[in-house]
Specification:
By secondary structure, this protein is mainly alpha-helical. 70% of the residues lie in helices and 0% in strands.
Length: 190
C-alpha cells in the first residue's frame, strides 16, 4: 500500500496531466503565446488557491476551462477598454501615413480574435476541443440552445471573414533579374 499523496503532489499531478490542454485552449482564446501562458498561470493559481473545491468538482478540468473562458473574456474586455483609451490619445498625436512594404498576412488566429469572446469560446470548445454542445453549455453555464446559436453565429462570421479575403498568402517575390528581364521585354528599360 502506497502512502497517501500530499495535496501538493496531487495538484502537481493534475497540472502535469492537464496543463498542455489548458494551454491550447488559452492560446486559442487569446491568440498570443505570452498572454496564453499568463492565462494558464492565473487559472492554475486560482485552482491551487481553491484546490479542495476544484478536486471535488464533478469535472475538475471542465471547471477550470470555465474559469479560463471567463478570465479570457474579462481580459478581452480590458484590452478593448485600453484600446479605446489609446484611440482617445491618438487624437492628440499628429497623423502620419506609413507605407507598408509587403502584403499583409492575416492568420486564422487573427480571424478568431474578431469573433466576440463568448462566441469564440463556443466555437473553440466545440471544434478545437471536440466537446459536445451539452459539455460546452455546462462549462459556460448556458443552455444547449445558446451554445448552438452562438457556435452557429461564430462559424458564420468565421466563414465570412475567410471568404472576404481576411486570410491572404503572401505572393512570392520575384528575383531582381526576373523583374528586370520582364521590364526589358516590355520596353521599360533601356
Amino acid at each position: 500500500m502506497s502512502p497517501p499523496r500530499s495535496t501538493a503532489e496531487e495538484f502537481a499531478e493534475f497540472v502535469t496531466a492537464h496543463a498542455r490542454g489548458l494551454g491550447r485552449l488559452a492560446y486559442l482564446l487569446v491568440a498570443d503565446a505570452h498572454a496564453a501562458d499568463d492565462l494558464v498561470a492565473d487559472v492554475m493559481l486560482a485552482a491551487w488557491k481553491q484546490w479542495d473545491q476544484v478536486r471535488t468538482a464533478n469535472h475538475p478540468v471542465a471547471y477550470l476551462r470555465q474559469v479560463m473562458v471567463n478570465q479570457a473574456a474579462a481580459r478581452h474586455k480590458r484590452v478593448i477598454r485600453e484600446r479605446l483609451g489609446l484611440e482617445r490619445l491618438r487624437d492628440f498625436v499628429p497623423r502620419s501615413s506609413p507605407a507598408p512594404d509587403s502584403d499583409a498576412v492575416v492568420d486564422v488566429q487573427a480571424v478568431l480574435q474578431r469573433i466576440p469572446p463568448r462566441r469564440r469560446a463556443c466555437l473553440v470548445l466545440r471544434y478545437a476541443f471536440d466537446l459536445s454542445d451539452r459539455e460546452v453549455a455546462e462549462m459556460l453555464g448556458v443552455t444547449v440552445g445558446a451554445v448552438k446559436s452562438q457556435t452557429s453565429k461564430a462559424a458564420a462570421q468565421f466563414r465570412r471573414e475567410l471568404e472576404n479575403g481576411a486570410i491572404r498568402t503572401p505572393q512570392p517575390r520575384e528575383s531582381g533579374e526576373r523583374v528586370r528581364s520582364r521590364a526589358e521585354r516590355n520596353g521599360h528599360v533601356r
